Amino acid sequence: QKEVEQDPGPLSVPEGAIVSLNCTYSNSAFQYFMWYRQYSRKGPELLMYTYSSGNKEDGRFTAQVDKSSKYISLFIRDSQPSDSATYLCAMKTQGGSEKLVFGKGTKLTVNP
Amino acid sequence: GAGVSQSPRYKVAKRGQDVALRCDPISGHVSLFWYQQALGQGPEFLTYFQNEAQLDKSGLPSDRFFAERPEGSVSTLKIQRTQQEDSAVYLCASSLGAGAGTDTQYFGPGTRLTVL
To answer: Measured between alpha carbons, how far is residue A43 from residues A27, B89, B109 in Å?
Structure first.
């Protein structure tokens, strides 16, 4: 079993829909949680960064972390065709190595 | 400002050949990371540097993989005697390396390696 599990989809929604993406993890030492967006043939770019449990909002994006359930989510409101990409969750521990552990990524298509 | 750059963007190698992939981090970034991304998968950590020191190489899959950053800036990932299973996108990332947990890793566009 991988440390971070993410449903690869694909996920297809109409423009304007609310999108929910999520990951589960097994390593309780993870303290930092990130969502990256990756367009085709590009490198990942950071969308959201959360420390420990709680919610964080940035424009149309909301990230949630539930450490008790080892479950993180990303919500996208009023989705746009430009949101079509692969969304990767990533995590790292506090102290020790700075390496990120990624999920498999969920491929999202927003249809106009 | 300039982001992380990688070269070449595409590399085709015959099985058994050696390859060298280059990463130019963002100027002033102390930490540099290498990841391998197979088709349809998330990036997998290979190794990382803080300045010229290689602090973690636990993700290197075999002794055919070697990375260096001799002057604490540009880094090279070398793969010897390439195998078909080495075919993947190799991503480089850099960060300020300030030691804060929220230190952001910025990724380059990757080098797509195909081993025939």
So the answer is: 26, 10, 4
Which tens digit of pLDDT belongs to each residue from B45-63?
999 999 999 999 999 999 9
Check: CB of residue B11 under 8 Å from CB of residue B21. Answer: yes
**What stretches of chain A show up as alpha helix (H) in DSSP?**
none
Q: Of B40, B52, B46, give the one whose Cα is nearest residue A40.
A: B40
The whole-angstrom separation of Cα B11 and Cα B32 is 21
Chain A with chain B: Cβ pairs closer than 8 A? 69
Residue-wise pLDDT tens digits, B7-36: 999 999 999 999 999 999 999 999 999 999
For residue A99, the one-letter residue type is K
Rounded CA separation B34/B61 (Å): 12
CA distances in angstroms from B33 to A2, A27, A80, B73, B80, listed in the order given:
21, 21, 32, 12, 19
Q: Is A103 on the interface with B (CB under 8 A)?
A: yes
Q: Please tell me if residue B99 touches chain A, with a CB cutoff of 8 Å.
A: no
Query: Rounded CA gap, B54 and A47, in Å?
Result: 28
pLDDT tier at A51, thresholds 50, 70, 90: confident
Q: Is A18 helix (H, G, I), strand (E, B) or coil?
A: coil
The residue length of chain A stands at 112
Amino acid at B42: G
